[in-house]
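Recall the central idea of this unit: under ordinary conditions, the amino acid sequence of a chain determines the structure it adopts. In this exercise we apply that idea directly, starting from the sequence alone.
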Amino acid sequence: MAPSDVTYSVKFEKRISRWFVFRFLWLFIEIWVMIVWSVFIAVICFLHFWYMLFLGKRHRAFWDMEMHFYRHCIKWQTYFKYLSNGRPKFIED
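Accordingly, the structure predicted from this sequence is:
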């Protein structure tokens, strides 16, 4: 996949909930989840680096865990920056 193949789009929502002013309160809940999860992902990235260095290939499970974390982070960032009206799920398939 070439870097030019990556796209990201955000749908414009004309109407928003009036409760959007309290979105920052979700930050206090989500920040603790993200701290613990990011430490775990840092360990996974470290292990994945050494796995790639010695074996010359990527480990599929490590890669999937990293991508799941990054997708989750982007969804929460779009929510907190008021680009999306719906709150993301904590756990996704």
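The longest helix spans residues 23-55.
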